[in-house]
From TrEMBL:
Organism: Qipengyuania pacifica
Superkingdom of the source species: Bacteria
Recorded topology in the membrane: Multi-pass membrane protein
Name of the protein this chain belongs to: ComEC family competence protein
Domain DUF4131: 72-228
Amino acid sequence: MARQGTPSIPMGDAGDTARETVPRTWRTHGLLSSSAHKFEAFLEAAEFDRGPWLTVAFGCGIGLWFYLAAPWQWVAMISAFLGMAVFSWAGWRHQPGRAFTLAAVISLALAVAAGVSVVWARSAMVGAEPIAYPRFERIDGRVLSREEQPAEDRVRLVLAARDGETGKAHAYRVNVPLSADSPELREGARVRLSARLMPPSPPIVPGAYNFARRAWFDGLAATGSAVGDVEIIEPPGASRLSIASAQRQLSRHVRANLEGTSGAIAATLASGDRGAIPEADEEAMRDSGLTHLLSISGLHVSAIIAATYFIVLKLLAFWPWLTLRIRLPLVAAGASAIAGIAYTLLTGAEVPTVRSCIGALLVLVALAVGREPLSMRMIAIAAGVVLVLWPESLVGPSFQMSFAAVIAIVSLHNVHAVRDFLAPRQESWLRRMSRRAVMLFLTGLVIELALMPIVLFHFHRAGVYGAAANLIAIPLVTFISMPLVALALALDLIGAGAPAWWLVGKSLALLLAIAHFFAEQPGSVKLAPRIGMGAIGLYVSGALWVALWQGRARLLGFGPILASAVLMITAPIPDILITRDGRDIGVANEAERLLVLHDREGGYAQDNLLELAGTDQSPIEIADWLRSRCSDQFCVFSLERGGRPWSVLVARNRYLVEERALAAACMRADIVIADRYLPYSCQPRWLKADRRFLDREGGASIYLADQKIDTVAQDQGEHGWWRAPRE
């Protein structure tokens, strides 16, 4: 029992300084206050510019909506960030020492909440419910759009029709062979045809392309192919000049004057129509890092606007009366703005083109009012406009690659050392051109480094020699090919364009030769398996930090970048890949050769399996593998993973087998894979991936050493495009 009057224990000569070092719960407020003061000082010293970060926060809100699975999570996220803004205002509005922190927290929180809300509203307004199952249907509808794809020997139509079962209006995308095409098969025509229709395809395996998501926002309920002839019930109205018709006519005119792939690329530069480029040449452009030249974006729009500005300015300078009364740069800027908008509309107004047009218009405005034309705020405005209009574009490679490239360029050219290197000085033309060439190569290298993680995340392969290829290709296209195309089109007005078209063909043939040369070099392509959201999220956050902060604070962004690089390099290759229909599987063996159930060279499923397995070597059929045993119905093989053998049983077809024999085989296997429903008596030791499993989960990636299964369903949540609602 404690006694009253317990004497105090002497503490020596330490006094109160000893007590100051002892943590106390009541000192937490002081520590938090100190941290808040440091954060406020950091924002003030770093010259925090909210403009670009507001767009980043808005994009984060959009990304959270795609990442989170259910509506209650979206509501919770909106509520949490609105609550953060309200509590910050209530707690800090009367504290003058929190001005930067208060502005940052409130503005960014509201931007995130707005991003979630905008993309959710967009999905609810434009999302198209997919058809419930594949079917063969007789369609009576009107043509909404037409896309010519001569390289694929087809025409792609989008038809508005009513569902034969429910009577609901739907949009179907149907491929029609060129043999069934006719001049009247264009916008406005009423047609009747038979087609095999499929719900828009989700990823066939985790990490593959998600067409169902894109179709949802494009308003497509099904895709398919026409069977037989196309009957035109009602021809289109009188031919009217529209953007789509002008684009097609311009593309046909270019291809009529220039044959082959050169003509197809020239048509792309003039009208944005890529449908005539052969697949082999398009792959060479991709693997050499030149595919951006086929996507109408900043390079093309900037060239058109710059050329228009220069020509108008020089021509008006010959008119002294006008020169003395009007600021010619304003007139030239207006003319080039009109040219840029017209070119953007003519080439299809894709996301990179719209971004480039908005950015170029902002540059013209900045030049007109005497402001800095190349800035992150300009990019943020362009990105914000695109995200407000098309928030779903955030998760697509086009938006990400386009803005990543521009951010890399502006960040590099805003570095003081680079500005000093490019500053005008008294020197010979040779030294000046050499500096420009070095800067062009450095810019290409920075762009390649910035884009490679994004390209690997989406496509699982990226060109390595893009910087060297672009050093030659970009000046060729910008200063030779595109001006020659414009000159040839102008001379065609008087029937004298043939010599210019000949020169266009030679310049584009040189471009193709450059693409094939770099694409065919050893090690020209980097392959990678699926990269996780954590790795790409770290990279994007680190890259944006480096690009948007000023001073030494930006160096903190290299930590996440390096961490993401380690995660990407060490990303594991799945041991077994199963497509969503179960008809194709890929098994990674020790020799880095993919084992497949059926060798379908050039098939969509097999190409995806090879990319996600991180190999470009030709696959081996499981039946031909020395370590497998196959009958007419099944194959069985063993894999050594994680220090133990794994027995795998795979169905080769849908032939029926005796149930008792199948049950016995399943008992001896760890994993059973089949594209049909297997009876309950089939009970493997670990996983039964039959039709029931695949209908529920979609495709799957299996990591045996970790005993981990990734499925398509895990990434889709309750978004409308994943699966059609069932009654």
